[in-house]
Amino acid sequence: MELRQLAYFVAVAEERNFTRAAEKAHVAQPGVSAQIRKLERELGQELLDRSGREVRLTEAGETVLPYARAALAAVEGARLAVDELTGLVRGHVAVGTVTSHNVDLPGLLAGFHDDHPAVEITLTEANSDQLMDELRAGLLDAAIISIGGTAPAGLDIRVVDDQPIVVAVAHDHELAIHQAVSVDTLRERPLISLPRGTGLRTRLDEACAAAGFTPRIAFEASDPGALAQLAARGLGAAILPGAFAEARADELRSIAIDRPALRGRLAFAWRTDGPSSPAGRALVARARATLGGPGSGHTRRAGR
Q1: What are the tens digits of pLDDT across the range 37-48?
Q2: What one-character DSSP code corresponds to residue 198?
Q3: Most exposed residue of 60, 131, 183, 223, measured as fewest CB within 10 angstroms of its CB?
Q4: Start-end of H helices in the chain
Q5: What are the domain boundaries of the chain?
């Protein structure tokens, strides 16, 4: 009995089709059929019912399938264990990030690449909702996301930035005379905000909903710099991270939001059960050791 025979059998069982299974295994279809026939002869039972348009498992096939999967998983586990035992980390790491932040993600990835040059690193950009979905689905190993007061379900986090969310307006705007405004002050005012799905927009929508209204979004853009420019031209009140707005004090007046105070947190996040690959786990370990943040950036789990 050979591992490739078990792998081909599992592929056919999952695809219910020899051609698709062969494509998945990157071999010719006759080779898949021949190897499964050898496996059936060795076991003395047919594992697949080939009589219909769709391949189905026989009773013997149903019995063998979980053992075949377990054998393949055990071999992969042994390979990963050897890799980790010898310190050889290779493979691929998929990282995601929100559009704009002050986290030294390039520094983290460059340091990781120096230590593990054989690992392929990919970086994608999306809003926080999409990144969290891809983390949970295993499409990403880690991501920089914007979060609320608690860790998202199914994810562990290391907070790397925590700052107030403010209203930023042109210096001649009617709100510019205020040091702070309540969320209710924003009712019916034209606001300039990041799109839905971003952490900052989620905090705004939640606060407005609690106050009994839906924010009036006059302008929406994924680039905080564009939001700042629109506000500086007097087109509305931009909702921005405090440090980002204060860095543009020559063009914008930053006004605190209270009753309730809004805060935006950035976090390095990964699945609660951890990345499946040694490379992914090595990146998370490096991030936890090197990325600083408020309160020493302690790791927090969902539900805590």
Answers
A1: 999 999 999 999
A2: S
A3: 223
A4: 3-15, 18-25, 29-43, 59-85, 105-115, 128-136, 199-210, 224-232, 242-246, 278-290
A5: 3-85, 89-304
Q: What DSSP designation does 126 have? A: -
Q: How many whole angstroms separate alpha carbon 92 and alpha carbon 33?
A: 31
Measure the CA–CA gap between 25 and 299, rounded to whole angstroms. Answer: 39
37 closest CA partner among 45, 66, 14, 11: 45
pTM for the predicted model, two decimal places: 0.63
pLDDT at 300 over 60: no
Digit-coded pLDDT (tens) for 179-189: 999 999 999 99
Residues 112 and 84 sit within 8 Å (Cβ to Cβ): no
**What are 200's strand-pairing partners?**
none
d(CA 20, CA 267): 40
Residue type at 224? P
What class has domain 3-85? mainly alpha
Dump pLDDT digits (tens) for 170-180.
999 999 999 99
Instruction: Residue 287: name the closest of 300, 297, 273 by CA.
Output: 297
Tell me the C-alpha distance between 55 and 284, whole Å: 42
